[in-house]
Amino acid sequence: MKETKLKVNQIRKAFPNLPTLQNISLELSESQFVSVLGPSGCGKSTLFSIIAGLASPDAGEVLIDGQSVTGRPGRVSFMHQKDLLLPWKSILDNAALPLFLQGVSTGEARERAQQYFHLFGLAGFENYYPAQLSGGMRQRAALLRTFLFSKDILLLDEPFGGLDAMTRQSMQHWLMEVVQELKASVLLITHDVDEAIWLSDRVYVLSRRPAVVKKVVEIPLKRPRQMNLFTDATYIALKETILDCFQREV
Amino acid sequence: MKKWVNIGDKALPLLAGGLLLLFWEAVGFFQWLPPYLLPPPSRVIQALGRDAGLLWQHARVTLTAASVGFGIAIVAGGSLALLLDYSPLIRRVLYPYLITSQTIPIVTLAPLFAMWFGFGLLPKILIVVLVCFFPVTVSLLDGLASVDQELIDLMRSMGATPWQRYRWVKLPAALPSFFAGLKISGTYSIMGAVIGEWIGGRMGLGVYMLRVRQSFATDRVFAVIVVIVALSILVLKLIQWLERKAMPWMKTALPTETLPEGEVENS
């Protein structure tokens, strides 16, 4: 049995006159890939803000490695649909940003970030500015930055939402391999059912606002997964289960 | 074709300016207006050449007042903008006064400053500071406020201290707006010094301008104006040069379709 990395326990959050999250609980184990699937505007991003410690829940707690980090930022970083790279810094310095913030010396921070440039498909572009790279490359740089901040847990909030379909698919494929290689635990927010099933070990389906966990679906598909999985009978059955639950919500 | 358009961009304004100068010259040549009212350009150029040494001596004094005042305005205005950005409470208290201060006509302050501080360099510097202070403060304040809140959230999630948020995100993000303000106040700085000199003193382009006007040497008045314009443009160019040096990431964007995709090893 793998150890629990991240545990979200009975989180409740309401904005004035707008109950957003109601008793959300979820779990992420070591080297596991878990997705949170929900209709747009259901409060998924609020949930991530709470896990990252940027917002405090009204009730409930966030545990990482058994320690409460509720309402305290600085333990896990997240990645957005927007790459949020600093336009005035090179790709290398952008990726190494969390190390700079932790007080690592410039030379060492760059060296440590540089080691991952090949794996992240960024080799040779260290000294480019973000505006000089394509959307896919910028997202990979943003992922590397997230990884260098907290190597064990990655929070990804619709990371490929802004990319075109082709780039998106190759990025999903690449993400799956890279995460396996890095042995990181990933929590992914998405509203794309295929993306959720294809990448995950477990999928939490959220309802509309105020969000509750409608269903928890384990994805028993073997890894490494290939593209032909999309026509696999188990895959289709899983997709039907989720869609059935999901569509009553939309 | 494209090249021709580019040449046209520069040649057309030059041509228009040339025609205007020619017409102006003709006004003097055919004596439509007497030269003590409107001296033709040739006379102005002669005056420039004749007075060059004198003009330079006065210009140096004006430049000193302008650059010292501009420098103080940058430091003081920049600090105030940072303070107002950092503390919403102080901003609420001071911002209305900052805006109101701009409605005071500075020309009317000049004689008061002469009363209080005499006819030396100090009142001139103060006028320049007052003229330059506001654009610097407001442009930096706007720039600091324009930062993407999600970027700030990201920095917070990575545990950045307030100083780190300014150092990595807020200050660089504010630079374009800050430089826009610098260009405005930089060109005003020369004018501010000249206004300050009008109230009196021994040296400076403003002082010199009053003297030559009182002796109806209109061509020399125009020569001073040419020098003031040239100095202002020089300051502007200097700031633009600094702007390019300070923000090397601007002007690097390439057309989307030419952006590299990089190598991803998909199996």
TrEMBL record, chain A:
Any signal peptide, and if so, which residues?
A: none
Alphabetical UniProt keywords: ATP-binding, Nucleotide-binding, Transport
InterPro entries recorded for this chain?
Answer: AAA+_ATPase, ABC_transporter-like_ATP-bd, ABC_transporter-like_CS, ABC_transporter_ATP-bind, P-loop_NTPase
Q: Name one Pfam family in it.
A: ABC_tran
The record's annotation in SUPFAM superfamilies points to: P-loop containing nucleoside triphosphate hydrolases (SSF52540)
Highest taxon of source: Bacteria
Single GO MF descriptor? ATP hydrolysis activity
Q: Where is the ABC transporter domain positioned along the sequence? A: 6-233
Return the PANTHER family for the record.
ABC TRANSPORTER ATP-BINDING PROTEIN (PTHR42788:SF2), TAURINE IMPORT ATP-BINDING PROTEIN-RELATED (PTHR42788)
**Name the UniProt record assigns to this protein:** ABC-type nitrate/sulfonate/bicarbonate transport system, ATPase component
User: What organism does the UniProt record list as the source?
Assistant: Anoxynatronum buryatiense
Automatic annotation (TrEMBL), chain B:
UniProt-annotated location(s): Cell membrane
* Keyword terms, alphabetized: Cell membrane, Membrane, Transmembrane, Transmembrane helix, Transport
Instruction: Report which superkingdom the organism of origin falls in.
Output: Bacteria
Q: Which InterPro entries match?
A: MetI-like (IPR000515), MetI-like_sf (IPR035906)
This protein's major location comes to: membrane
Q: Where is the signal peptide?
A: none
Q: Where is the ABC transmembrane type-1 domain?
A: 59-240
* PROSITE patterns, alphabetized: ABC_TM1
Which SUPFAM superfamilies is this protein grouped with? Answer: MetI-like (SSF161098)
Its transmembrane ranges are 12-33, 63-84, 96-119, 125-147, 222-242
Any GO CC annotation of this UniProt entry: plasma membrane
Its GO biological process terms? Answer: transmembrane transport
Membrane topology, as annotated: Multi-pass membrane protein
- Which family does the entry's similarity section mention? Belongs to the binding-protein-dependent transport system permease family.
Listed PANTHER family: ABC TRANSPORTER PERMEASE PROTEIN HI_0355-RELATED (PTHR30151:SF20), ALKANE SULFONATE ABC TRANSPORTER-RELATED, MEMBRANE SUBUNIT (PTHR30151)
Q: What name appears for this protein in its UniProt entry? A: ABC-type nitrate/sulfonate/bicarbonate transport system, permease component
Gene source species: Anoxynatronum buryatiense
